Amino acid sequence: MMRLDDLDQRIIGLLAEDARISNREAARLLGISDTAVRKRLKKLSDSGAAKITAVADSAALGMTTAVLVRVQTSPETARDVVEAMASFDEVSFAALMTGRFNIVLLVAAQSRQAVADIIHMHLRRRSGVHRVETVEIVSVAKHNLDIALVSRKR
Known about the structure:
With 154 residues, this protein is α+β, with helices and mostly antiparallel strands. It folds into two domains: 42 residues, Winged helix-like DNA-binding domain superfamily/Winged helix DNA-binding domain (Arc Repressor Mutant, subunit A, Orthogonal Bundle), CATH 1.10.10; 73 residues, Lrp/AsnC effector binding domain/regulation of amino acid metabolism (RAM) domain (Alpha-Beta Plaits), CATH 3.30.70. The protein is 36% helix and 20% strand. It contains five helices and four strands. The two termini are 17 Å apart.
């Protein structure tokens, strides 16, 4: 685990406000050289502490239906089921979890029918799937990707 110092946090803060800010502009705002910013960003990226990426707005891309799906499987099939479902473009989040349901998925598609097709034709038919519970997301009050980052573990 990498420890972030104040300068790392300030660089990340600038990028969170404007991911397109240049190293030169970030350096000017922070009172350091652009080389220092570039080296810090490389260190943050190489360590996995920060990732600079674009996040598409699914609604703007026509993905107007979003559904949270909780799945209960037999323990021995959970990993195979979650990995199979993660392969679908419409599945933006797939994770193993504890509790009564051992898989959670976030599915976004162009229609309710498209979501239903994924659930009924691909998920429910998988061996070991015992129960599927869906909840349609109708309104989002907050979606902050940089706060509740969940690391990928293999």
